[in-house]
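Sequence in, structure out. First:
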Amino acid sequence: MESNNLFFRLCDPLQKHIYEADLISNQEELFGQLVLNKMVGIAFKKLEYRALNPELRKTLILLNDNYLNRSALYKKQLKYLVNNILANAEFDYSLLKGSFLSTNLYKSGQRVSNDFDILISPESISRLQKLLIDNGFVQGGVNSSNEIVPATRREILESRLNFGQTVPFVKIIENSPLIIDINFSLDFKASANNIVGEFLNDIVIATFENVRFKTLSPIKFLLHLACHLYKESTTYYWVARRRDLMLYKFCDIYMFINKFGTIEYFSDLIEQIKKYNFEKECYYTFENSSIIYPALNKIDGFLKVKESIKPENLDFMKQIVYPREKKLFKYDMSFTDWFFCPDRVSQLEEIPYEEY
């Protein structure tokens, strides 16, 4: 347990000093966790290089260089996306997650993003798709040779029906893929949702390096982060692929609240959470984020947020849903043990779906 807490401290962007001697005793596991959770850029300067295995030390340096290069490429691609593509958008949209977080909250190289998330209303999907296709984007993935692999008709339909987002759109620019995810729902459901329209009516302009782009207001941004984290943390599809509990997502919550969290902000946040019935999503996100980053609980007003939105029944905190199969599972361990569990699927016990 103590080594787990040390790992979380090592991955705290706001903590400058750490004594990580216990971590060094299991270097292979440490490196695996850093890579899996995309936290190399944050932990890099906190590790005692001389205490590391020489080969792991070399790898650490290479990985950090890669993070710095990816961060620079991401900002370059963001400029291209904003100036060359979205400048021609004749519909409401908002850039989400990494576009703002990587450029406004984290230092260069601390947070890497693989794609750009765009929130639009369901009615605007075809218009954005046409805009992307007209500019050379293809719906699909990228293989190890940096070649686009077009998505099948089935993959396109399944993504829209089961995940509330489209299969990514990809374009190769200067030998690097620019990947765009279109989001049109705040959960795994594909049904039209008036909430998305309300979110898109609450847009602010963010800037970096003289580039201006649309994103959600600070409260709506946090609500989206919380809903997205909850969706992926509690949906079987992501659990089975070990992409459910990525530490960087909890770190995003920590960093965002640290930047915007004031008494006035929290008061408005509570009101908005209750307005949209996001108590479950936000309580799950805030409570588990504060387990990883206890400093959250010291921010004046944050504990009141958790107390105000805490549901009476907390069974959902340890449940995993498989919406496509209409199945529901539960697990029986602490959140920290669940986070570090190497085979989470094997720990699931099916329960009646009606309880969801």
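Second:
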Amino acid sequence: MPSLKTIDNGKTFDWGKTSSDYAKYRDIYPDEFHKRIIDLGLCTKGQKVLDLGTGTGVLPRNMYKYGAIFTGADISENQIAHARRLSEESGMDIKYIAASAETIDFPDDTFDVVTACQCFMYFKEDMS
């Protein structure tokens, strides 16, 4: 896993500054991607899913029709605000929280599935 110092040359970043563009243009995963997840038996009806680095809620919103109960988490409050708005506008009941992946604290067995799309490189490698 790369060090945080090697990502973006160690510069800090704030995805929240691009939330409006993400909400408008970044619905990026093709239907084939969602089908593969379902074919693996993941994110299906009744399963509780935590989506880390959810951004504007792209994965939960696109997978919602398969019946899983989603919670999306992102470090950016702006991303979460857009995720909530987009989900509500579509009549979707998806819970969102603003928190980093490293600080999320749920009891054991809260979730059946944990997803994290295009965000692993930003997780801290040492949580001690």
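Remark: The helical segments are 19-25, 31-39, 58-63, 77-89.
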